[in-house]
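Journal club prep — side note

Before the paper discussion, L.F. wants everyone to see what a predicted structure for a comparable chain looks like in C-alpha cell form. Sequence:
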Amino acid sequence: NNKLIFQIKMPGRAAKKSTTPSKSAPKTKGQRYDYTELGKVSVTSSDSHHVYGVIVDATFPYKANNDKFICSLKIVDPSLNGKEFATVVIYAKKFENLPIVHRLGDIIRLHRASLRMYKGHRQFNVTTHWHGSWALFSTDSKNALGQAAGDAPTSFSGSRSTFEKHESGILSNLRKWASAYFAGDAAAAGDKLRAL
C-alpha cells in the first residue's frame, strides 16, 4: 500500500485550481517537486505534472522532421492496478536530448509534463526544449551497462539533474513494486511455455 507523493506546485507560482481534488503530501523545507501517481493526475488540470513510472515499452528515438525528434514510451505504476498503462511522448530538437531505454522495467521521472487523453490512455507529453525534462533510473542494483546503480539517474536530459531527499523513498517503493510486477508477469508467462 505504498503511495507516491502527490500534486505538483511550482515555487513562486500560484497553483491553478484543479476540478479534481488531490491528496498532497506536505512539502518539507527546500522541497521543489511533488510527484503524482500516474492514475491520480487530473486529466482536467492544465498544470504541468511531475511523475515517476516503470517503463514497459519503448521506441528508439527517431527524427520526425527537420527540427523535431521523438521518443515514445509506455509506463505503469501501482495506481494503474496492473491493467492500464500511460503513454509518454518526449519531444526534443536534438537526438541526444532523448532517452535511450536499455532495459524494460527501469524507471523514468518526468518533470513539467502535460497530460491529455489519447486513444483511451493517459498521455504525458514532455518537450525538452520547453522546460520539460526526464531522468532514467535503474530498477536493479546495477544498470543495464553493468555499473552500480544507486539513487543517481543513469541518464537525463539537460546539463544536470536534480534529486531531492524525498525521492529516495519514491524510488525505493517503485523499485520494489516493479520487481514484484515483473516477477508476476514472468510467473504467468512461465505457465504457457513448453520446453522444446
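L.F.'s comment for the group: The helical segments are 166-190. Keep this in mind when we get to the figures.
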